[in-house]
Amino acid sequence: MKIKKILVSQPKPENKKSPYFDLAEKYGLQVDFRPFIHVEGISSKEFRKSRVNILDHTAIIFKSRTAIDHFFRICEELRVNVPDSMKYFCTSEASAFYLQKYIVYRKRKIFYGNGDFNDLLTIIKKHKKENSLDIKLNYLSEFNEIISYLKNNLSKDDLLITIGAGNVYEIGEELVGEQSEK
Asked: Which CATH fold topology does 38-135 show?
């Protein structure tokens, strides 16, 4: 069976230098681009309800460019000036370089891993004390581990946002279901 069509689950690249166009031309393929994932940021009103004060934190972890865009959008809407002393931890070098769109890139305040979250945790643990508070970091890969950890560590006023691919939303739904039963 000869492949004639390829479906790519991302937006169509804006420039023609994408390898998808090279493949299409070389092998006579039809390449369709359909973004399957849409990330929508919360409004500044919703963010205020969570009672999180950005300036109370000395470091931020970013997993993607979209997260960076939404963070700085919220800061702008709330009229929060992010201090120059803020540290940024990114899962990849590409995300770290993307920060240049919003801040002056300085090696002493931007840190990144190789795309693996465990690698990023190692880097964050090197900066263990921020604001004289101990940072506790855990990587939990199994849902049962995550739910057990959250049950033991979340307090009444904590905000839990479950974001990710697949069925990660079930963690929040299970915790909410248990709370409503009580």
From this structure: Rossmann fold (3.40.50)
**146 falls in which pLDDT band (50, 70, 90)?**
confident
Q: 28's torsion region: left (phi>0), alpha (psi -120 to 50) or beta?
A: left
pLDDT in tens, 25-54: 888 889 898 887 777 788 888 888 888 888
**101-139: buried (b, 16+ CB within 10 Å) or exposed (e) per residue?**
ebeeeeeebbbbbeeeeeebeeebeeeeeeeeeeeeeee
Kindly state the tokens that stand for 24.
Answer: 């299409």
pLDDT in tens, 113-134: 887 777 777 787 777 655 444 4
Closest by Cα among 52, 154, 64, 157 to 171:
154
CA 146, chain centre distance (Å): 18
**Would you kindly state where each structural domain of the chain is located, as residue ranges?**
1-36, 38-135, 140-182
Distance of CA 178 to the CA centre of its chain: 27
Helices (H) then strands (E): counts for the chain: 7, 7
Mean pLDDT of 145-163: 74
Give the DSSP H or E segment for 171: helix 169-181
Using CA atoms in the order 5, 10, 16, 21, what is the torsion angle rounded to 10 degrees? Answer: -20
